[in-house]
Amino acid sequence: MTESICDKLKKLRKNRKISMSELAKASGIHQTTISAIENGRHSSPGIDTVEKLANALKVSPLYFFEERVITPFDLDAELPPDVMNFLLSAESLPYIKLSKDAYEKGVSSETIRHFLELLQMTAKNSTEKQLEKEQKVDSI
């Protein structure tokens, strides 16, 4: 079943946990227009409107037009807020690309988890050693 623009907008806005008034402020689109789109009274908004809403919701405008374009929220509506915020931040893109590369090369998520734990331990040890050096220099 193909979702309409109104369905996708409402679903994405609710998954982002923002009100219509917050979306109106972020997008520059009047709250009445957003309500009309979500309720199917304005089923063919202009591309400028769609682009502004997409930018405010941090998705491609294609999300509203292409059936095959989905967000992680379409796959799992119960994503924790910190995961949602990460996925929607511009800073997450390099990490998402690395994950895709690892997946395509057959690296398991368990291997990545172990590697991250090793990196964290190494960083912690390095920080502790640096603090020890600084304390020695300060005590001289």
Q: What would you note in describing this structure?
A:
- This protein is mainly alpha-helical and 140 residues long.
- The chain folds into two domains: 73 residues, 434 Repressor (Amino-terminal Domain) (Orthogonal Bundle); 45 residues.
- It contains eight helices and no strands.
- Helix 2 crosses helix 4.
- The radius of gyration is 22 Å and the shape is elongated.
- The N and C termini lie far apart (73 Å).
Order of helices and strands: HHHHHHHH
Low-pLDDT windows of residues: none
**Which structural class is indicated by helix and strand composition?**
mainly alpha
CATH topology annotation of the largest domain: 434 Repressor (Amino-terminal Domain)
Under the CATH scheme, which class of the largest domain?
Mainly Alpha
CATH evolutionary superfamily of the largest domain: lambda repressor-like DNA-binding domains
Largest sheet: none
Helix content: 55-70%
What is the radius of gyration computed over CA atoms, rounded to a whole number of angstroms? 22 Å
Strand fraction equals under 5%
- Count of separate structural domains: 2
Note the total helix count.
8
Shape descriptor reads elongated
Give the overall pLDDT as a whole number.
Answer: 84
Q: Give the tally of β-strands.
A: 0
CATH architecture of the largest domain: Orthogonal Bundle
Separation, N- and C-terminal Cα atoms:
73 Å
What does this entry show, briefly?
With 140 residues, this protein is mainly α.
Topology of this protein?
Elements: H1 5-15, H2 20-27, H3 31-38, H4 47-57, H5 72-75, H6 81-88, H7 93-104, H8 109-139
Helix pairs in contact: 2-4
